[in-house]
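Subject: two folds for Thursday's group meeting

Dear M.,

Sorry for the delay on this. The cluster queue was jammed most of the week, so I only got both jobs back this morning. I'm pasting them in the order they finished. Each block is the input sequence followed by the predicted structure tokens. Could you check whether the formatting survives your parser before we put anything on slides? The first protein is the one we discussed after the seminar.
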Amino acid sequence: QVQLVESGGGLVQAGGSLRLSCAASGLTFNDYAMGWFRQAPGKEREFVAAISWSGNSAGNADTVKGRFTISRDNAKSTVYLQMNSLKPEDTAVYYCAARRGTLRTADARYEYWGQGTQVTVSS
């Protein structure tokens, strides 16, 4: 079975950094585009970043451009989200997702999801 496990969340002060990891199993990792989504309290789930199967292309939501960087290590079947200059509005549960094919920004286009990891940014 496919399993995506996020880690690296926690509490950090505004302006700080955090690195999230998502370890995948049960799939041929390099056949899948990977994405990060988040859901803040009282908000709908939103796109954060995504990366192609090869890592040759990636995209970020406007709200995190210049601050967040997505990357992947296919040898380790792991995708990362480096978060810098964190803001209180970044507080959310962050989810890792996978889809076979090209990267997408719509959460409905992703097949598999992790359980999420909480990121809390204090002011």
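Second protein, same layout:
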Amino acid sequence: QVQLHESGVGSVHAGGSLRLSCVASEDMENEYCMGWFRQAPGKQREGVAAIDSDGRAAYADSVKGRFTISQDNAKGTLYLQMDTLKPEDTATYYCAAAEGPAMRNLNILRWLLLHGDQFKYWGQGILVTVSS
């Protein structure tokens, strides 16, 4: 099975930036989707950003324009660049991966952000704290 591991600097002041990384233990198949999710204490899990094997990306409205998802296939690594961080971004962040689907478009990626259970593989999570 695919193992995912998140890493990065987990503490920053409001307005600052940081980058999270997620390393996969093995190559993904040709068709896949990967994403970042977050969950704050007492809050529902929120899809943050998703990217597919074609390179298209989708974002939650709450992070659009501030976060950027990217991937380095050669390194088997997924990234989340977070800029202009706000205290409300504080949460545990998880990377996730899914095989397929055969049909992929921006609407499907947006749908996947609302249905995290579609992702088969999950990292252990990394706590990100944004102070005021």
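Two things I noticed about the second structure. The CA atoms of residues 13 and 131 lie 5 Å apart. The chain has a mean pLDDT of 95.

Cheers,
T.
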